[in-house]
Amino acid sequence: MSKHETWRTIEYWEKEDGLLIEEFVITTKSSDRGLRVIDGLIIMGEKKERRKSIIFNIKGRDIICIQTKKGRLGMSVMGQAFFSRELLKKNKPNSIRTVIICGKDDLLLREICLKYELEVVIIPDK
Known about the structure:
Elements: H1 3-13, E1 19-27, E2 36-43, E3 49-52, E4 62-68, H2 75-89, E5 95-102, H3 107-115, E6 118-122
Parallel strand pairs: 1-3, 4-5, 5-6
Antiparallel strand pairs: 1-2, 2-4
């Protein structure tokens, strides 16, 4: 994550409970697929702490999938969030909240996010 994104993810997590895993690997790179990493994954019900890139079995767990961008809400981060959630479903969590954190809103795209149960959180530059 970049310096413009990390602090936003942490600021969001500080209002939640659970373990924050930064740069959570959804899929590893192989000959038939690319590496897929999400900006943050919160495991509800775990001790409140931050960890980087650890392996964690999410089967049966309540999780929050986070994708963060410094700029305006856009289709790129929306796609990342949507497909990250779909990939996480393969690990059979109990529930998944999908959160997009951005520096600026886009009301038209926010409507679409709501339709697909993608939460949008705006954390502007400080």
